[in-house]
């Protein structure tokens, strides 16, 4: 896949620990072309209840995210789900949804090491360290059977090359 899954109408999901760089990569992709949007459960949480996490609201957060993704895919958008997606179970809904649209999900595996994520968290103080610990312990790497897997480096290289190909007047 020359376009690292960013073809029109595709579903892309990020996979990685908190503070691994998933959101930065997703935003950069969204800025790379028309009709590429990011759906982020963290943003939905803030809009819904103003907090990072409220357990009782999680079913609503994910229902909203799934509705947004389906609606955007129906309209022909390329959708990037910016979430940790650390387990096969968490990714299953996106794999199934992609199949509903006759596509194969693209998986951006942002494989930043655990120590780096913890150091970033210590600097920013965003999460209780137990959350990163739990996600690290439960992490299941994405498998080819789930979708087309791209490393963050592959995606960055594609974005860098596509930017280099642009004429100054195109920017």
TrEMBL record:
Q: Does the keyword Kinase apply?
A: yes
Query: InterPro entries this protein is in?
Result: P-loop_ATP/GTP-bd_All4644_prd, P-loop_NTPase
Q: Fetch the Gene3D superfamilies from UniProt.
A: P-loop containing nucleotide triphosphate hydrolases
Q: Which UniProt keywords apply?
A: Kinase, Transferase
Note whether Transferase occurs among the keywords.
yes
What is a single molecular function from GO for this protein? kinase activity
What protein am I looking at? Kinase-like protein
UniProt source species:
Acetonema longum DSM 6540
């Amino acid at each position: 896949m020359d376009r690292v899954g960013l073809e029109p109408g595709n579903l892309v999901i990020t996979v990685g620990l908190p503070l691994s760089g998933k959101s930065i990569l997703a935003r950069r992709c969204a800025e790379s072309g028309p009709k590429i949007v990011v759906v982020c459960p963290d943003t939905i949480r803030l809009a819904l209840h103003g907090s990072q996490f409220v357990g009782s609201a999680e079913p609503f957060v994910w229902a909203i995210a799934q509705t947004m993704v389906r609606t955007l895919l129906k309209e022909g958008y390329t959708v990037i789900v910016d979430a940790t997606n650390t387990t096969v179970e968490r990714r299953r809904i996106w794999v199934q949804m992609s199949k509903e649209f006759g596509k194969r999900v693209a998986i951006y595996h942002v494989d930043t090491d655990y120590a780096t994520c913890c150091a970033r968290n210590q600097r920013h103080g965003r999460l209780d360290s137990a959350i990163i610990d739990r996600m690290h312990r439960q992490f299941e790497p994405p498998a080819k059977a789930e979708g087309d897997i791209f490393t963050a480096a592959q995606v960055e290289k594609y974005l860098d090359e596509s930017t280099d190909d642009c004429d100054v007047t195109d920017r």
